[in-house]
């Protein structure tokens, strides 16, 4: 009677015991890499807007503070999108015939808001309060990147939970004096961890053991 399995079956079985775990690692690793890629996170991907707004010109060259346009960011849980009135504060006097600003002029004349496209969007199950972060010394560039170097606003970070937890587990790494919150390219005047620890006390920031409580962000 012929054997049910050929002599090489043992070799194939042994090889499969090695190949299957390796395949699983490759698949999981590939999914992780894909999940962190710009194809999923949209990090670094330019978002078309109805009006081209060069942040680098307005922030780096003209020196506008972030709160000039996003004026409720330190007073509200959300960062508002600037109204046409805010744009026309300057552009009723400057660049009056610039064709790129035609939608702004039409919006002002008709009283219809510009339909800006949101760049950063958190899931509905995540609560994020801009005011508390600004008031506790978290810089704009910590989350939004070097906006002063962007010709158009792009998403700078994935805002995955791991990104938020990195700060909540060790806030001292990221805190800065309140008068430097909107400063781009901020450099601490000393050891960041020492300065951050001092600011944690000064700003009455909760200890990391409480900041990583699920109810902080998921309510």
List the helices and strands and how they pair.
Elements: H1 9-36, H2 38-41, H3 55-61, H4 66-69, H5 84-91, H6 102-110, H7 130-135, H8 140-144, H9 161-169, H10 192-202, H11 208-211
What does the model show?
The chain has 219 residues and is an all-alpha fold. It has 2 domains: 9-41; 55-81 and 116-216, no CATH class. Helix content is 43%, strand content 0%. The chain has 11 helices and no strands. It has helices at residues 9-36, 38-41, 55-61, 66-69, 84-91, 102-110, 130-135, 140-144, 161-169, 192-202, 208-211. Helix 5 packs across helix 6 (102-110). The mean pLDDT is 89.
What's a quick, concise take on this entry?
The chain has 219 residues and is mostly helical. It has two domains: 9-41; 55-81 and 116-216, no CATH class. It is built from eleven helices and no strands.
Could you say which overall geometry the principal axes of the C-alpha atoms support? extended
What is the string of SSEs from the N terminus onward?
HHHHHHHHHHH
Q: Helix content range of the residues, please? A: 40-55%
Number of strands: 0
What's the total helix number?
11
Radius of gyration: 25 Å
Distance between the termini: 69 Å
Strand percentage lies at under 5%
The overall pLDDT, averaged over residues, is 89
Q: How many distinct folded domains? A: 2
Main pleated sheet: none
**What structural class should be given to the helix and strand makeup?**
mainly alpha
Low-confidence stretches: none
List keywords for this structure.
219 residues; mainly alpha; 2 domains; 11 helices; 43% helix
């Amino acid at each position: 009677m012929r054997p049910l399995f050929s002599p090489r079956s043992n070799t194939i079985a042994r090889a499969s015991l090695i190949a299957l775990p390796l395949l699983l690692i490759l698949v999981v690793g590939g999914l992780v890499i894909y999940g962190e890629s710009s194809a999923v996170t949209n990090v670094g991907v330019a978002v078309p807007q109805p009006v081209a707004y060069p942040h680098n010109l307005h922030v780096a060259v003209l020196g506008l503070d972030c709160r000039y346009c996003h004026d409720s960011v330190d007073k509200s849980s959300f960062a508002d999108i600037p109204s046409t009135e805010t744009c026309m504060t300057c552009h009723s006097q400057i660049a009056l015939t610039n064709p790129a600003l035609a939608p702004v002029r039409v919006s002002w004349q008709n009283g219809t808001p510009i339909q800006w496209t949101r760049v950063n969007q958190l899931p509905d199950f995540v609560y994020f309060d801009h005011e508390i972060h600004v008031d506790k010394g978290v810089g704009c560039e910590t989350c939004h990147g070097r906006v002063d170097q962007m010709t158009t606003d792009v998403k700078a970070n994935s805002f995955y939970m791991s990104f938020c937890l990195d700060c909540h587990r060790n806030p001292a790494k990221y805190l800065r004096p309140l008068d430097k919150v909107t400063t781009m390219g901020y450099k601490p005047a000393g050891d960041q961890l020492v300065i951050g620890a001092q600011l944690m006390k000064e700003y009455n920031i909760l200890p990391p053991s409480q900041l990583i409580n699920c109810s902080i962000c998921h309510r």
